[in-house]
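Translate sequence into structure tokens.
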Amino acid sequence: HARRDLAWLRSERARDGVPAAVALNPRWSQECAAHDAYEAAGGVLQSSEDPAAVDASPGGAWAGLNSDLAEGSWTHARTPWEQAPIHLLALLAPSLSVTGIDDTGTLQCVVTFPGMLRSSNGPDAVTTVPARGATGVPPAELARESPFTPVQFVGLPASRRTGRELFVYLNRTGQIGQAPVQILHASLRVGHRAVAVRWIDSNTRTVGPYLAGGIVIPLRPLASHTRCRASVTVQDGARTVTHTWRFTTR
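Result follows.
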């Protein structure tokens, strides 16, 4: 189902305001399939492979370490990572231009970081998901992913339901891939009320090196059918960039 899933991924990226032109690399899809076969044979869901195992392979091991993995299914409206913000952050990265996909039963594999090959021709810019003017944004989420979730790095229990987490990306002129994101300040207002937020970024212990951007976390679920105003300031070399945008919850 690689081509079908790619079409759905392109549609979701377009809805989220990030470049939808992502190409399929058949070799990477085969390597994702090899890793899914390894997981199925061992009854596991994990990124690493035991090289001594019968079903291990160099290509499968590469895919396991360079992909979003999941147990779930795609639909035309959502990927299997909608409640996995750290993984979804990579899947929606603006620079993602090539991927490999395998969809074997309930086992899913999508190559992410090696495919972040798009460069930016414009000035340094912050991009967010949800994008400016987005509507129908889920007001809440309970993150479910392994080995950890964003809320665990801001002093909250993994079981905490929060507002929908906001993704922050930095693209630099002429640079291929995503620039590291260091968030200096973030705020969120729902109507006239300020909502407490915390964030994780490239400087966050343990998880920082694995992030394709930053994640702003509203500490409580947002109200439905409400217009929200968000702002984030990030470090960009010797200067800072502030991005302010509005979106509406469903």
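Note: The longest helix spans residues 26-42.
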